[in-house]
Task: structure prediction
Amino acid sequence: MKTINVGIIGGGLMGKEVASALGRWFVLNDYPLKVVLKAVCDINKEALKWYEQIPTIDLLTTDYKALLDSSNVDVVYVALPHHLHEEYYLKVLEAGKDLFAEKPFGINLEAAKIIKNKIDESGRFVRCSSEMPFFPGGQRVIKEILSGRLGKVIEVKAGFCHSSDMDPFKPINWKRQSKFCGDIGVMGDLGMHVMHIPLRMGWKPDRVYAQLQKIVTKRPDGKGGWSECDTWNNAHLSSTISIEGEEVPMLLEMKRLAPGETNSWFIEVFGTEGGVRYSTKDTKVLWTFNREKEQIWQRIDLGFQVPFPTITGGIFEPGFPDCFMQMLAAYFAEREGFLEGRLGCVTPEEAVMSHQVFDAALKSHQSKSAIVIP
Ligand SMILES: NC(=O)c1ccc[n+]([C@@H]2O[C@H](COP(=O)([O-])OP(=O)(O)OC[C@H]3O[C@@H](n4cnc5c(N)ncnc54)[C@H](O)[C@@H]3O)[C@@H](O)[C@H]2O)c1
Result:
């Protein structure tokens, strides 16, 4: 069986998620490729220690050049703070490797465009991470939209809500400082996840009116003092999309301070004939609406209905590691040409589009007016 060798640059939270998915690749049934983790680079030696337990790895290094020079690495997953995306994504492409990038795909719109140009120049295969649409619920929402069953679309709502920042004493980290995570703040953190399905449906906003909030502006620095927390915590984007020549409102929410929400990703699409609603808050529940004599919302308990079949029983519940693995399976399937109509990962074009929306949102908030997106 063909084997694809993977290297990771940035062995923190998400580097470990990729290692975990690749470490149990054998759960995919009849997947025609082996995908193996071979090398990990992190500037922090302590972070590398965790990877010592993975037998397939033959290179653990603090030097990214050693990883990029390795002929044993075909695809590089980069999971670094946002201010490093442009620099490292370019290095990967210059080394002649394919890239699985993390969102937000550059710290701002300018960086995203530079990365996209380099991809076009290099011809390498690049996609960006966004795993939530690979939950069975996300997959069914796409199916419902594409079925045409919903009639004329009335409105779309999508969002991603966390409550991890509700604790004002949670110490600061790079994700709460603009110089590392970008002026787009929470939009860079959660926005790509929110926009993946809308953009794939062709629903790119034509204009946006944004309300951005900085709610907790200081956090413990972890050394007994306080640090400035200068990022946008919450973003409400009221946007307009065009469907069959008609303007349709699309509300997008990205929040780090959403009381009670741990990691709730949701999407709702309402039409004149039907509707669909899914939230990871109720992971296996899909709601569908039918306009009949009486108006009916139906609750369906979805099982393990994933695009790439696994050994897991069809009625069992999926979780974050499962949808993350399905996303990786989609990346390698698309790279090898056997995606066969299944949802693919976020493309570089879509990542740039998401940045256009976030950039317009910053301008909208500043000018307190709606901004037209070119
Ligand atoms: N897809 C998702 O659901 C998801 C979730 C969280 C974060 N992310 C994204 O993943 C990326 C990384 O986030 P994270 O949560 O893993 O961060 P993290 O802080 O947990 O890990 C980053 C790692 O990069 C290392 N690092 C920093 N500079 C480096 C350099 N120059 N060379 C090599 N290693 C370096 C750090 O030591 C750290 O171990 C970000 O783009 C973030 O937005 C995605």
